Structures are given as C-alpha cells and as structure tokens.
Amino acid sequence: MDIPANKLATIFELVHHKKTVGTAQEVGSGLGLFLVRKSVVAQGGCIEIDSTPGQGTVIGFTVAQVPQAQTLA
C-alpha cells in the first residue's frame, strides 16, 4: 500500500475518516497506527515510516532493551 507523501506526517495521529471502497463507504477510527505508536513510545522506542509510490510502505520501530531479571543465588 502506498501512502501519499502529504499524509505521512500525520499517519500516526488519531483520526476519524470515511473512505469509499467500490460502491460502499467504510468508516474508520484511524486507531491502529495511533495505538502502535503509543505502545512503542511508552516502551522508550521510536517508530518511522517510509512510503514510495509503486513500491510500497515500510514501517520500522525500535524499543528499549529490558535487562534480564537477575536470579537470586
């Protein structure tokens, strides 16, 4: 799926939208990527998106590494 360049800056925002699919309209909350970003940021990470027309979209993220629990000896 290609995402237009003018939409990339707001792709992770919470939105309410309608889109036409064939002859029907779908109503969406725009909740999915909003929640993904909130989760990644809450874990000390960051998320990025890159979309190239005709080639697709790549979303990547990193999260902070959590130290393993120490065992009691």
Please explain how this structure is put together:
The chain has helices at residues 5-8, 32-42, and strands at 17-21, 24-28, 46-52, 56-62. By secondary structure, it is of the alpha+beta class. A two-stranded antiparallel sheet has the order 1-2. It has a two-stranded antiparallel sheet with strand order 3-4. The longest helix is centred in the middle third of the chain and has 11 residues, at 32-42. The chain starts with a helix and ends in an 11-residue tail after the last strand. The mean pLDDT is 81.
What is the element string, with H for helices and E for strands? HEEHEE
User: Would you tell me the overall average pLDDT?
Assistant: 81
Number of helices: 2
Which structural class matches the secondary elements? Answer: alpha+beta
